[in-house]
Amino acid sequence: MSIDKRRLPQFKRVTPPGGRRVDVLRKALLAAGALSSLLYVVATDVVAASMWDGYRRTEQMVSELFAVGSPGRDVLLPFTWLYTALFTAFGVGVWNSVRGNRALRIGGGLLIGYGLWNIMGALYPLTLGDDASIPMHIVATNIQLALMVAAMCFVAAGYPGRMRAYSIVSLVVSAVMGVVAFMAAPGPNLVLGISERISIGAFLLWVAILAAALWKRPAADPY
Question: Does some domain include residue 5?
Fold first, then answer.
């Protein structure tokens, strides 16, 4: 006698209560990444820029808003610590979401490093009107950029399909526009302000998209 497999009862995998709590925590950590991107835009180009009369978003660097002597620095200084905490939490969320995938694990570790490196950026800010502050700020910024690029590369390597293609495109846009902004510095000029914001925006959006992509997948998925 044959058995019609279509009539067999279908059982859903039951997640134990402890597993549900772990998954809720994992998703909360991932959500911190999307939130960090949103808050970055609001804190810089909405709040801090509005406190600086004459600041031109299309022509001036975002770094100037964080600089010592900037009218918006008092707002951005506590935000820096909040952003550091949120982004580091996001990196931990990525790490916990990609078990069994070495490339994505490394990417998650690099994102944690990127988040924590914001502390160095806060310790070596620009000082308006003081060229002596520029070299150490450039060093701190370039190390963070290296962590960002490496993280995006490893995520692209470990994540197949559309997310890989999107990561590569985002990386190229962010890197190319970053180089263009660096060449256009110190400004102010349209190339500097716009290209830097495209570079930053491409990365911030990538973080939010990665968080959404990992949110949908169980932590144990091998990808």
Answer: no
Residue % of the chain over a pLDDT of 90? 65
Other Cβ atoms within 10 Å of 156 Cβ, number? 21
Does a cis peptide bond (omega within 30 degrees of 0) precede residue 160? Answer: no
118 belongs to a structural domain: yes
Q: Which structural domain, as residue segments, surrounds residue 153?
A: 19-215
pLDDT in tens, 135-170: 888 888 889 999 999 999 999 999 988 999 999 999
